[in-house]
Amino acid sequence: MSSATDAPDTPEPATVALGEGVRLHSIQTGWVAVKRAHRAFRGPAVLRLPAVIADSRWTEWLPVICFAIEHPEGLIIVDTATLRAQLRDFETVLLPAHDPDTRERLLQAGRR
């Protein structure tokens, strides 16, 4: 596996204004590599931990992302603790479908 110094550079936060006094910041806090079995194990749950421990293969570098929401009532921090592929589900379910312009700005900012 590559060393921590081989991880890609971490990009600057992406910010989107959502309305008066509301801004969303997508912040990549770093990178992580995990065992491939940890990410993609398909089998009985009882075998997951032994499969992860025995696996010698690592994933590519994966981004660690959190969000900061500036709101008139206060600052909200959301630690997603998830992988980019899983964020696609988050985007589909939680982003405001009723406002396509805001949805598109958020999606574009998250891809920078």
Largest sheet: 4 strands, antiparallel
Number of strands: 4
Distance between the termini: 26 Å
Strand content: 25-35%
Q: Sum up the overall morphology in one term.
A: elongated
Structural class: alpha+beta
Q: What's the average pLDDT?
A: 76
**How many helical elements?**
4
Give the SSE order as H and E letters.
Answer: EEHHEEHH
Radius of gyration: 17 Å
Taken together, the total number of domains comes to: 1
Task: Provide structural commentary.
It is a single chain. By secondary structure, this protein is an alpha+beta fold. It is elongated and about 50 Å long. The longest helix has 11 residues, at 84-94. A hairpin with a 2-residue loop joins strand 3 and strand 4 (74-79). The protein has a 4-stranded antiparallel sheet, covered by helices on one side. The chain has one domain. It has 4 helices and 4 strands; from the N terminus they run E-E-H-H-E-E-H-H.
Annotation keywords:
alpha+beta; 4-stranded antiparallel β-sheet; single chain; 112 residues; 4 helices; elongated
Helix-strand layout with pairing:
Layout lengths: L13 E6 L2 E11 L3 H5 L7 H7 L7 E10 L2 E6 L4 H11 L5 H11 L2
Antiparallel strand pairs: 1-2, 2-3, 3-4
In short:
This protein is an alpha+beta fold. It is 30% helix and 29% strand.
